[in-house]
């Protein structure tokens, strides 16, 4: 479940600044989303996608520029799941099905399904040889 991220859109100064720093720490500590760029002077700069309204995660920027853009322009709408910054979508445990399917009906055989399976199996086996 995604944590409450209402702070991203309420703009209460103290709280907002605290959580923007938390967001930036999270993103820049996730090696899978950080891009490195070498400047003309040889300095290597780490960058992430900027989630502001204008950039919409399309542009890579340094930490300072992302922070500036967020303060200046705010976060893009509905960016509660930080997918471009390494946060995975939650998986749901589907559990077990409570209704019996054809393979669960004891003593009954569905010859049509068996024929389709056999035909598919034969076709697959022949294509492998």
From TrEMBL:
Name under which the protein is recorded: Transposase-associated domain-containing protein
Protein's organism: Lactuca sativa
One Pfam family in the UniProt entry: Transpos_assoc
Source species, domain of life: Eukaryota
All copies of domain Transposase-associated, residue ranges: 5-87
